[in-house]
Write a structure and sequence with these properties.
mainly alpha; 2 strands
């Protein structure tokens, strides 16, 4: 069906207000990256200091959520919104966010901008992530169990990397960076005599909780969203309380409809854009998909309105 029509923020909000709503701050971007790593470090430190099962499990969940946060901040960098200079935007996005997760910022940017251009159309490379929904409740549970047991990570991340290494004797630059990063973490853990912490507080969250909340994020953003080349209906905004923001939707990722409408706006401006659109009466279920929470989204994705 072709490219998604664009919406003009200048026309909707006026030039001066739109300039404010899309303004970038280098310090906000740097601060969010620092916040992600500080939360990871604090959670790991707490679990190392008090290595009780419930503390370690809670820390692993928090760390997996911040690993998702790093992926979200990499997404900001892919749009050039993490820093107000191109060079530092890409360095921050690649070195501090993408490479520790084994992702190439350059490759992701090309892929992701095509997603924005053709969102929910046949040419959208992300359509495969949403077109299968709704599914049965049993199917959704099976998918989440595969995530939480590490099977999704094994199939999507580890086996392709090993296949490239064994049969082609090469790995991508991003995979190589991830291996080096993990080697450094292992070295740090060995020096401090807490090798268990690497496996339980970095690798385990990455293989399990990160994969599960990544799926939930993908479902919330585009699953069960009907569109006919309508920019107001290609993505969903999901209301998130503080628990959801901490564990499922860090760094304003729940404002996905606003992001697709105005992808030149940094993530920390999206709540303001949401409020401005509400003031104008432009946000309602008839015009733009909205959900009251992630459980509501999962019920809809599993064919249940209960």
């Amino acid at each position: 069906m072709g490219r998604i029509a664009k919406v003009s923020g200048r026309s909707l909000f006026g030039a001066s207000r739109w300039a404010m709503l899309r303004s970038r701050s280098r310090w906000r971007g740097i601060g969010m990256v620092m916040h992600a790593w500080l939360v990871i470090g604090a959670a790991a430190g707490l679990a190392i200091a008090f290595p009780y099962p419930v503390v370690v499990l809670g820390a692993a969940v928090v760390i997996g959520s911040r690993q998702l946060g790093l992926a979200i901040l990499m997404h900001e960098a892919a749009h050039g919104l993490l820093h107000d200079t191109h060079r530092w935007n890409d360095r921050l996005g690649a070195w501090a966010c993408a490479w520790p997760l084994g992702i190439s910022l350059t490759d992701y940017r090309q892929y992701h901008l095509r997603h924005h251009t053709y969102a929910q159309q046949e040419e959208d490379p992300d359509l495969v992530l949403s077109s299968k929904f709704p599914v049965s409740g049993q199917s959704l549970v099976r998918k989440l169990l595969r995530d939480l047991t590490g099977l999704t990570f094994l199939r999507q991340r580890l086996l392709p990397m090993l296949h490239s290494l064994v049969f082609h004797r090469q790995v991508s630059r991003a995979d190589g960076a991830m291996v080096l990063f993990n080697a450094a973490l292992i070295g740090l853990a060995v020096v401090n005599n807490v090798l268990w912490a690497y496996f339980l507080l970095w690798l385990l969250p990455f293989m399990t909780w990160y994969m599960a909340v990544l799926r939930v994020r993908n479902i919330a953003e585009h699953a069960c969203v009907a569109t006919k080349n309508n920019p107001w209906r290609v993505a969903r905004t999901t209301h998130a309380g503080w628990i959801a923001r901490a564990l499922v939707a860090p760094y304003f990722v729940n404002y996905h409809a606003e992001h697709h409408l105005f992808m030149s706006a940094p993530c920390y401006r999206l709540p303001g854009i949401h409020a401005a659109l509400q003031e104008q009466g432009r946000l309602d279920q008839e015009r733009t998909p909205m959900a009251n929470g992630y459980l509501q989204v999962l019920r809809q994705a599993s064919g249940s309105n209960a």
